[in-house]
Design brief:
300 residues; alpha+beta; 3-stranded antiparallel β-sheet; 11 helices; 41% helix; elongated
Length: 300
C-alpha cells in the first residue's frame, strides 16, 4: 500500500554545514537508481543545480544554520503502478504539500521490487524566507492524506484508514474491527452478485442485507459501526464494477462457492430464551426482519 515517509537533515558539525543536503540530492539522482525510466525533475529549481540554488536561497535570507532540508519517500505496493504514474504522484504531492514556495527535487527509483519516489526540499521558503515547519500530526493529517488522494485517482492501494484525514482518524482497535468487516462484506457481496440479474438488482440485494451503498465510479458499502465506506473492488477485483457487469452479462460460475461464516465480528453470548421467544425470533427471521438489523449489536 502507498505510504509516505518523512525525514529531516540536520546541519553537519564536522564538515560543511550543508553536506547532508548535498549528499542526499546526489544519492537520489544516481543513474543506477533511476534506471531506464530516468525520471527526475525539479520544482523551482533544476535537478542538476538544486543544491547550489537551495544554498543560495539560505544565504539570501541568512538561514544557513539548523535543519538543512527534508526528505520525503513515497512507496507503492509491490507490482503496482508505473514509473510515469509514480512520477506524476510525487510531483503533484510536492506541489500541493509545499504550495509552490520551496525548491524541491523529485526522483523515481526503480531498483527495488516496489516503485518509490524521493522528494528532497529546501528547509527555507524561497518566498518568505521562513523555515519549513513540521508539526506533530502533519504526517497523519496533511502529508499522508495527499498521497492517499492521489493514489486513489489511479486505483492504487492506500494506507490503512486509521491514518487518513478524511474520514476522521480512528484508533487501531476500530480499524482492525473494520478489517474483519471486509471478509464479511466480501462473502455477502458474492452472494448478492450470484443472485442478481443486473447491477440495479445487485445494489437492491446489498441494501436488503443491511448495507448502506454509495455508487459512483466505484461501488462502496458501509454497515453500522463502520466509520468509512469500503470499496468493493479493494476487497476483491471480482467485485469491481467492470467485473460485475461482465458477470451479469456472461455469467461466472466460479463465484458460486459455498459461503463459510467463520468470522466473528462481535462477542457472542448465548441467551436463555423461553419457547415463546424462540418461536417469535424464528418468525422474525423468516420474515427477514432480523436480517435487516443483523449488524446492530443486541438487535435480536
Amino acid at each position: 500500500m502507498a505510504i509516505t515517509k518523512m525525514m529531516h537533515m540536520k546541519a553537519s558539525s564536522k564538515a560543511r554545514i550543508d553536506i547532508h543536503l548535498e549528499h542526499s540530492i546526489n544519492y537520489i539522482l544516481q543513474p543506477k537508481k533511476l534506471g531506464e525510466a530516468n525520471l527526475a525533475g525539479g520544482i523551482n529549481c533544476l535537478p542538476e543545480m538544486a543544491y547550489r540554488q537551495m544554498k543560495a536561497t539560505k544565504q539570501m535570507f541568512g538561514k544557513t544554520g539548523g535543519r538543512q532540508g527534508y526528505h520525503f519517500v513515497i512507496s507503492l505496493k509491490p507490482g503496482e503502478g508505473t514509473p510515469e504514474i509514480m512520477y506524476d504522484i510525487s510531483m503533484r504531492f510536492a506541489e500541493e504539500a509545499l504550495a509552490g514556495e520551496y525548491e524541491a527535487v523529485v526522483a523515481v527509483h526503480t531498483d527495488r521490487e516496489h516503485l518509490h519516489a524521493h522528494i528532497i526540499i529546501n528547509s527555507v521558503n524561497m518566498v518568505t524566507g521562513y523555515k519549513f515547519q513540521c508539526r506533530d500530526g502533519d504526517w497523519k493529517y496533511k502529508f499522508q492524506p495527499i498521497t492517499n488522494k492521489l493514489c486513489e485517482e489511479y486505483g492504487l492501494h492506500i494506507t490503512p484508514a486509521e491514518y487518513s484525514k478524511e474520514p476522521k482518524n480512528m484508533a487501531r482497535p476500530q480499524w482492525e474491527r473494520e478489517q474483519v468487516f471486509s471478509e464479511w462484506i466480501k462473502q455477502d457481496a458474492f452472494v448478492c452478485a450470484i443472485s442478481a440479474e443486473n447491477m440495479e438488482h445487485f445494489i437492491f440485494l446489498l441494501e436488503k442485507m443491511g448495507f448502506e451503498v454509495k455508487q459512483g465510479k466505484h461501488i462502496a458499502v458501509k454497515v453500522p459501526g463502520m466509520k468509512r465506506f469500503k470499496r468493493l473492488d479493494t476487497i476483491s477485483e471480482d467485485l469491481s464494477r467492470e467485473s460485475l457487469e461482465a458477470m451479469f452479462k456472461y455469467g461466472d460460475a466460479s463465484l458460486a462457492a459455498s459461503v463459510n461464516r467463520t468470522v466473528s465480528l462481535l462477542p457472542v453470548r448465548k441467551a436463555v430464551l423461553t419457547p415463546y421467544q424462540k418461536k417469535c425470533y424464528a418468525r422474525m427471521y423468516r420474515l427477514r426482519l432480523a436480517e435487516k438489523k443483523r449488524f446492530t449489536y443486541k438487535s435480536a
